[in-house]
Amino acid sequence: MSFSQTRALPPSPIPHDQIKWLIAASCLVAASCLVLPSAAHAGMQDIESANNQVSAQFQRSMVNYTETTNEPGGSEVLLDNENGGINGYGITGSVMKNLWLGNDYLHAQYNSVSGNTNYTGGTLTNPAFGSAIGESGARIRDYSIRYGAGFPQDRETMLTLYTELGHHKYLRTLGLGTPGAYRETYSHNYFGIGALMQYSSIEKWVFSLNALLGHTFQSRMDAVFPAPFNGLSARLGDSSLERLGFQVDYAMTKHLHANAGVELTAWSYGASTSQPVAAGVNLYEPNSTTFITTARVGIGYAF
């Protein structure tokens, strides 16, 4: 939650450290394909095994949340920013069986990360950018379910098309450790269509590229402020949502799998209307953009 202050917006909308994460992951996958020895073409069998398992992952999410506003004349300016890494876990389950469509694909996922991020911005009483620098609490919960069908392209490649429905919640505690600390909760649902390309030319190894294009709905923010301010519940503008991810799965045994991956998810919130929170004081939730890069390492059980 911020008042409008004039400050030039950074030139790159995507943080460079997150771009580097994706480039590093791409290079890791490519290098693995080059250096691993050739083996029997298990192909579809390995892909189906990777798609029929439950797994648990340790994960680290790099969060970059930025609030902006439009000044008279149309220039976009920066209000505040949250940036940092937080840790947690994920639980994933997927099934690929011949049911209605052939190679029917069902996938469910739950993620939970928490920690502190670095805050630069202002306060309720002094909103000037840079007047407040510190840490904010961050707690993020996501869950999703997808359904689709796989289409073998050849003996080593499977293309799976799917639809996905999910929910995101971000609990943000500003002014952490100070008497004026307050809490904001951002949430939205989303729906999207995606494609999962899986490739297995080396026995026991499956390399996956996943892309999703969706749209948020029911976006909102709820804030609890310290006295004498009242709370605020605001409807936010919805936006497109994009996700790109890479994953590697290795079958250590018939049932025990190891997996690692990285993904980038991005979306925006539109500004809310202005609302009174105290006598003579109106607040609004400004435009914001979120980029979250998540790296995962886990163990799965194939069935």
Summarize the structure.
With 303 residues, the chain is mainly β.
Question: What is the alpha-carbon Rg in Å?
Answer: 22 Å
Work out the oligomeric state of the chains in this entry: single chain
The main pleated sheet reads as:
10 strands, antiparallel, barrel
Mean pLDDT: 87
- Summing up helix and strand content along with how strands pair, one would put the structural category as mainly beta
**What separation lies between the terminal Cα atoms?**
47 Å
Shape: elongated
- Low-confidence runs: 2-16, 29-41
Helix and strand sequence: HHEEEEEEEEEEEEE
Strand order of the largest sheet: 1-2-3-4-5-6-7-9-10-13
**What percentage of the residues does DSSP assign to strands (E)?**
over 45%
Helix-residue proportion: under 10%
